[in-house]
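hey all, quick one before standup. I had two proteins in the batch that finished overnight and I want to keep them in one place so we stop losing track of which output belongs to which input. First protein below, input sequence then C-alpha cells straight from the run.
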Amino acid sequence: MINAKSILGGIALSVAVATSSLAAGVEYNATSTGLALQGYDPVAYFTDGEPTKGNWKITTSYDDATYRFASEENKIAFEKNPEAYIPAYGGYCAFGAAMGFKFDGDPTYWKIVDDVLYLNLSKDIQERWEGDIPGFVERADVNWEDIEDKTPEELQAQ
C-alpha cells in the first residue's frame, strides 16, 4: 500500500509555493487572476496532441476561470462543450487528488485517458500515477467528492 505522507512529503517544499496560485474558487486550479491551465489551450491537448500556449487575445470564461486558446476554432469548440475539455479535478494534480490533496497540475505533464484530460505536478509524480492509472483515477474520483470545496492549505493541514 502506498504511504501518501511519505510520497507527498518529498514534494511538500515545491508544493508549498505551487498551491499559492488559487483563484476565487477552490474547485479550479487557476492563477490569482483566474487564468486556468497557466494559459495553455485545453482543446489543443485533444486536437494537436500536445500542450499549446493559448493566445491572450483569444479567451473565454467558464466557472470563474479564464481559458486561452491557440485559435478561434478551439475557442468555439470549447464554448460548445467545455466539460469535454477542462482537466479532471479542476486542473489539480491527478495523483495528488488520489492521495486526498490539491497540488497544482503542470500543463506540460498531462495524459488523456478515456477522453479526459489529467494533469500531474511533475515528471516523477506522473510516472508514479502512470503505474496504476485506473486505480489512481478511481481513488481520485472518490476523494474529489470530499476535497473539491476545500483549499489546498486546508487539506495539507489535516
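OK second protein, same deal, sequence then C-alpha cells:
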Amino acid sequence: MVDKTSTGSELNTVPVSRRASFNLRDSHTRRLKPFNSGDIKILLLENKAGYQVEFHTKALDKATLIEKIKDVHAVGIRKCCPMPNKLLTIGCFCIGTNQVNLSYAASRGISVFNSPFSNSRSVAELVIAEIILLARQLGDRSREMHEGVWNKVSKKCYEIRGKTLGIVGYGHIGTQLGVLAESLGMNVIWFDILPVMPIGMSRNTDTLDELLGQADFVSLHVPETPETKNMIGARELALMKAGLIPDQRALSESLQSGHLGGAAVDVYPSEPLANGPGFDSPLRNCPNTLLTPHIGGSTEEAQRMIGVEVATAITKYINTGATVNAVNFAECDLRAIPSSDLTTVRIVNVHQNVPGVLRQINNILADYNVNKQISDSKGDVAYFMADVTVNDQKEISTIYEEITGIQENIITRVLF
C-alpha cells in the first residue's frame, strides 16, 4: 500500500504499512495518513504528530525564512511570510489573518486556519482592567509615585458600577466583555453591523452615533477593514464621553484638551516587528492614557488554547482533508472510514470554481464505488472530497493522474 500526495503535477509515492491505525476516540474508524508521516515538514515560528517539526521561538529575517520555508508542507506563523511550492496549509496562531493573502493562498490550494475564539476571555479581562484603571486614573498615579510625587486626588475618579459601557463589535470578545461588565454592575449597550442575539441585560443601539452619545466607556472590537479604519475620528470623538482605539492623532488632541477623560490602546496602525525600542505614537505621554503592546490575548491560557486549536486544525486537514474552520476554503468534512475497510481511499481536490469541473471529476469516478462525497466552493476556489473503493495501486494511480490532468486542477491528494 502506498501513500500519495501532490501539490502539482508530480506524484510522490512512499511505501507505508498496510495495517490500519485506530482513532483513539473510536476504535471502529480508520485514521487516514497523507504521507509517511516522517516525510511531513512543518515550520513553527514564534513560540506533534510524528512529523518533521522545526521550531523557532522568534521570527526569522526574510532571507532566512525564504530558505527555511521552501520545502515545508505546513507553517505556523504570526506575521507574514512567503509561500513555498510544497505548502499545503498555513496556521495563523492568532485571531487575525491579515498577514496572509487569503485569496492568493486559496488559488494555490493552500488552506489557512486561525484561532478566532481562544483568546476572547483574555482580551475581555484586559479591557475590564483598563476600564477600572482609567476610571481611577491609576496609570498616572503609578507613574507619579515612581517619580516621587504624592498626588492623592478624587476629582474625576469614578466607580464603574452604574456606568454605561458601549461595545462596538458584539462578537466573541464583545459578548465576553459584556458579561464581565454586567457582573460588575455596568450597563451594557452595543452596536454591530450584523444582527446578533443580546446576552444578559445588554441592548443594541440602532447607530454608532447613538452608542457614542450614551456610553461612559467605549470599547472597539472590530476587524481591520477599509470600513473600520479610523472609524472613530474628530466628529465621533466630539460625541463621546470616553473613547478607545480611534484615529490616534484626533484622540491625542481630545485627551490633551481634556474632552476625553482617558484612553486605553492595545492595537496600533503600525507596530514594531520585534520587542525593544522603536515604538512611536501621538498618544505617548497623553494624560490618563494606557498604552500596551498588543497583549490583549497574551496570556498563558490563551496561547495554550490557540496552539491546540490551530495545531489540531492543521493536523486534521493534512491527515483527513477536513477544512472545517478554514478561513479561505469552503468548510468540508466526511465521516471517518471504518477500521475494517482497507480498500477505501480518500480523494481530496482543490480546483478553480468554474462550470464543468465537478462533472469531469464525477465522470472519472463513475467506474468506481464512491462511498460518499462532498463539494463546496468559496469565491474562485472549489473543494471536493470523496471516499472511493479501489482494488489495487493501478486504480489509485489512474484516478490520481486523470484528476490532476483536469485543466482547472489546483491540487489533488490521495489519503489512505
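Flagging for whoever picks this up: The radius of gyration is 26 Å. Residues 171 and 221 are 8 Å apart (CA to CA).
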